Amino acid sequence: MRGLSTYDHLIRTARTLLVATALLAFAMWPIEANPQTGSAGAAEEVTFVEKPLEGKVVDAAGKPAAGAKVTLIGLAWRGEYASGSSVPFDVIAKSECDNQGDFRITNFKPSPIGWQLVQVAALAKDSGVAWQRVDLYHEQLAPLEMRLPANQQIRGRLITADGKPAAGVAVNITGIGRRRDLDGLNLECDLGDALFPSTVTTNDEGELVANHVPPGFGVSFILDQKQYAKQRWTWKPGDPALHTVTLPPREYHVSGTVVSADSGEPLTGAVVCAPSVIGESDNHGRFHLSPSAYLPIWIIAFPPNGTPYLGTKSQAIPPESGPIPDVKIELPRGVAIRGRVVERLSGKPVAHAGIGYIPRDDNVPQNGFVPDTRSPCTFTDEKGEFLMGLPAGKGTLLVSCASADNVVYQLSRDLLATGKPGLPLDYTNSSYVFGQLAIDVPAAASEMQVQLSVDRGATIRGTVVGVDGKPPRLIKVLSHQFRARFSDVFYPSTYQPVFDGQLALRGLPSDEERLYWLLDPAGKQGKVLRVRASDVDKPLKVELEKCGSASVHFVDANGTPVAGLALGECAMSINMLPEDALAGNSSNEHFAHADNLCLDLFDFQNCHDLVSDENGRITYTALIPSAIYSLPTTPMSPVTIVPHNIKLAPGEHLDLPDVVVRNQAVLDQATKRWNQMSNQRAPAEQHIGNAK
Description:
This protein is mostly beta strands. The chain has a domain at 548-665: Carboxypeptidase-like, regulatory domain (Immunoglobulin-like), CATH 2.60.40. A hairpin with a 4-residue loop joins strand 36 and strand 37 (525-531). The protein contains five helices and 47 strands. Strands 9, 10, 11, 13 and 14 form a five-stranded antiparallel β-sheet that branches. A five-stranded antiparallel β-sheet has the order 34-33-36-37-39, with no helix packed on it. A four-stranded antiparallel β-sheet has the order 3-2-5-6, with no helix packed on it.
């Protein structure tokens, strides 16, 4: 829990090995809730959306895009392990624009509890693809207006290990977006070639072309063919590096069988992990992986969902070239924990809830069990019931709900690890869970019954308007409650999207004030909002304020501005702290709900790929008024920055103290980057001048 090893990162990408204390949050789930705190009444069932989705698509010149293809994609909660490592997105519906560029979608594929992370994508023959997020469960689906961008091509080349062109190689396009762009277009589903060519093939020279890419966006690829090692990579537009990928042969692989240790029977659906790869055992318990050959190979296997077995890790296998066949992994049987998750007051079962387990520090399980926060993990069925295996000894079961209507609570990580209160709650010692249960599993037990409960919170609805009195098209809402939600999704979101100013804050506890941070990235306006469940009957109208801004000035040892400096991981972060935390009071109470998030995860529209200008300045242009931001010293940054906490008034600009860059390698790289950027700008500026 205190750090992530290489295998932790690997396991996280499986989507099936999750924990309620995850620091990333999933998007607000589109499920209607009763506006009552702890209501004993039955919750509204999620119904199949019946409202049509309408809109207009125009080309880059603003003319109707007749015949443009429109596709609606989204994610349905599966409550089960999914094989491989692709995101289980699906096509919800398709349509086509008429001669006026208008489209209407009425036939939606049903989903058990609502479609999540829904995106509508539009594409015409000679355009780039356009997309945006939509909420199919909004009370009023406003007509969409989508403008198709120009068509950008991203070219590259694939070569074999001996430098020859890799001809005729089929590569899948998995997404379009910017760096760390959580709102990028997800293409890990079958959109159909009529909308977007999800597979492209190299020519005789090994050249690869991705079409229909909007200007400024990059493309992510995945190669998974028998003759080559599995690879993922991203090509960015205007990247000064040559887009070339070397394809090593798939000579190195590990295959074997996962069986139960007690009966020797093969286990179907076990999740098997090795460096850089994740797979799943087939109906005969067999698995086949091609991990990175340059690392000692540890194989971690996790039991199939709904079985009483324990995860285990094999002994190290030397990183030798060639196949490693017939690895036998025996999963020990644990104590069968049969449980149920219900809402505390109503007793209603909670379906699709994730169940995680954390053993106490003093409980070291035997038989090779992996004492990891993501193992074991299972999901409740429609009756709220689950089955999992646990080792003997003390630990804690954790619950994470699929619904945003349930209340998130803060929990001490020290308490989970030691059973003692430990350090004060702050962002270094906090986890967020929906429910928990301390458990002591007897060594002699074969089966154990448990019940966990969660609370249903209140819902406050309201409207949001900008400084012009009009509701912004999209607002991003940040809160602690989104930090606790997890699912089998690889790309989590860190915020709740709010469309057309129609705000719904769900999961409010009855006895606690909650803070929300609202940002309109396009309009650069925001607000820090405090609400309580007792305000449920009061009309809520939120008036956004103009954002502030802050600049960081980078200079060398002689005081000369450093142009072209890129911070890489965005150094500026937003701290989820009360507004008065910087007003001379920094007690533990003020930090009880502390957390932080890099800005480019929350507001990549204004914070992605920032590079210092000719004056050596990097400017953050959309800082929420009264929110607290940090420019900390971080090992991810190429320069050392003196820590600063800042809080701005509406429209205020702040110039932070100069940052002296002394690392010559960083200075050289900045100069090289600035020269490349200048060379790329010159032809475009000349073209504009000629056009005039």
